[in-house]
Amino acid sequence: MAIDDLLDEHEQGERVRSWLRKNGAGLIGGVVVGLGLILGGQWWQKQQLSHAAEAGRRYDAVVKGVEAGKLDDAAKAMQELSAAKAAGIYVDLAALDLAKAQVTAGKNDEAIKTLRNIQADGALKRVVDQRLAKLLIDGNQGAEADKLLAGYDDGISLEIRGDAAQAQGQRDAARDLYTKALAQVAVGAPQRALLEVKLTDAGGTVPEPAEQI
Q: Chief subcellular site (predicted)?
């Protein structure tokens, strides 16, 4: 090999070593950061799966307690589920199951507390508020029940508000609410017959189907 070639190779080698001395730390740091992001992402996914699995187990504990009639155990499991990470919808579903069992057992005050603790959104919140309103009416808290459902205009909410008004002796308001609720119920629907009875008891007249809006 010619001496010129050896010098060229030596010069190229020096350039490479010089570049590495200047940029090597940054290059290594970039590799470390990249690996950290990959490993961190994998760790996060494993953590999420672990949290979800744990929430599922605690949800099962609530359901088993409810099914066995051990409501105190179910309530304790409910508290643990509420504190669990990534519990999500598990908390709302478990609370609804627990509240229903508490009502069946005649523990309305406990059911009210359970429902009040549910932090639901959208359609599920409406269901929770409707169930809570019914219990409030049973507990002679019709005004609070009416206030709770004041923002809803669906047939079920209007009917429950009518129940609240009737419970407070507000027959005019009850008739108006029952009439509005009835207008949203199809002829022949199972719930229509009871709603018609409520309207009649409030001193109202059931309109003919053709007269409904």
A: membrane
* C-alpha–C-alpha distance, residues 74 and 62, integer Å: 4
Q: What are the pLDDT tens digits along the chain (213 aa)?
A: 444 444 455 565 566 566 556 655 555 555 555 555 565 555 445 544 555 566 677 777 877 888 888 888 888 887 877 776 555 677 888 888 889 999 999 999 999 999 998 888 888 899 999 999 999 999 999 999 999 999 999 999 999 999 999 999 999 999 999 999 999 988 888 889 999 999 999 998 888 765 444
Q: State the pTM of this model.
A: 0.69
The structure tokens listed for 174 are: 């009850």
Distance CA 66, CA 111 (A): 13
- DSSP state, residue 154: S
